[in-house]
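thread from #wetlab-drylab

HS: before we spend reagent money on co-crystallization trials with zinc ion, can we at least see a predicted complex? here's what I'd submit
DV: go for it
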Amino acid sequence: MMDSSIGLRSNLTELLTSIAKERIYSSRKVVILTGAGISAESGIPTFRDKDGIWTKFSPEELANFDAFYKNTKIVSEWYKKRRDIIEKKHPNPGHFALKEMEQLFPSFHIITQNIDGLHQKAGSEKVIELHGNIMRNYCINCKKEYTTDEFDEIYNHTDTHIPMCDCDGLIRPDVVWFGEQLPQDALETAFQLAEEADLFLTIGTSAYVRPASDIPIVALQNGAYVIEVNPAKTGLTNFTHLNLLGKSGEILPKLLEEIKLNLNH
Ligand code: BJW
Ligand code: ZN
C-alpha cells in the first residue's frame, strides 16, 4: 500500500508521488492524529522512545487508578513535576504548521493523545483531546474541577502532599489512565471524523495504545489517504499510503509550504 518512505533531507516536492499530490491537494476533510512525538521537539519526552517516560517509570506503577489510590503521594508528585515542566514548554514548528493548515481546508480537525495542550497554545481551534489534559484536575468523589493554581495551593499547604477536596475526596489529574474509558464524546467524534476523512495524518505516535491506534485504521478502511509522519517505523507503517520518515517539526512546515503552493480548491 505504501508509496515510499521519504528521508529527512529530501525535497518533498520531488518525492511526493503524483497520487500523493493529487490526494493531498484535493482533500477537503482533513483529520490529524497526534502523539507524544509531535511535542518531542518542544522538550517534552515521549513515552516509549529510548529516553521516554516509561523507560524510567513503569506505567503499571504510575498511570493507573489503583496506583494513584494506593500511592497517592508518589503519583501526585509525579504529575505535579510533569505539569510544572509542561507548563513552561512552547509549541514547535510542527504545532504551528498544523495551526496554519487549519485555515487551508474546509474541514480540519486534530485528534490528540497528548495531555500537554500545545496544539491549543499554537492556536489550533479544533482539537479533540482523547487522553485528557494535565493542567486540569478533579475530585474523584464530587467531581469538582481544580485548575493547576488551585491544585498547587492545596498541594503546597498539605504536609502529607495528598491533595484532598473539601468533601474529603482525592484530587486527581484529568488524564486517562490504563484501564479507564476515554471521554465518550471525544472518542465518538474522533471515529466519526476518521470515517469521513479524505486525508488522514498520523503524526508522532507509536500507535501502540488502543483505542487511539484504531482511529487511523478506520480512516484507511473508509477510503482516506493516510500519511504517517514519524522518524521511526510503527505498527501502522506497513498499512499507510505514505511514510514521511523524519521529525514532525521539520516535515510539517515543508508539507505546509507544498500545500500552500498547490492546493486546488
Ligand atoms: C517523533 C519525534 C519527532 C519521536 N517527530 N515523531 C492488554 C492488557 C491491558 C490493557 C490492554 C491490553 N490491550 C489493550 C489494552 C488497552 C490499553 C492499551 O492500549 N494498552 C497497551 C499498552 C497495549 N488501553 C487502555 O487501557 C485505554 N482505555 C481503554 O482501552 O478503555 C477500554 C475499557 C474497556 C472496559 C473497561 C475499562 C476500559 C486507555 C489508554 C490510556 C493511555 N494513557 C496514557 C497516559 C496518559 C497520562 C499521562 O501522560 O500520564 O496516554 S499512556 C501514554 O501512551 C499516553 C499517550 O497518550 C499514549 C500513546 O503514546 P504515544 O503518544 O504514541 O507515545 P509513544 O512514546 O508511544 O510514541 C511516540 C512516537 O513519536 C514514536 O513512534 C517516536 O518514533 C515518535 N517520535 N520523536 C515525530 N520529533
Ligand atoms: Zn470533592
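DV: The chain has a mean pLDDT of 92.
HS: ok that's useful, forwarding to the group
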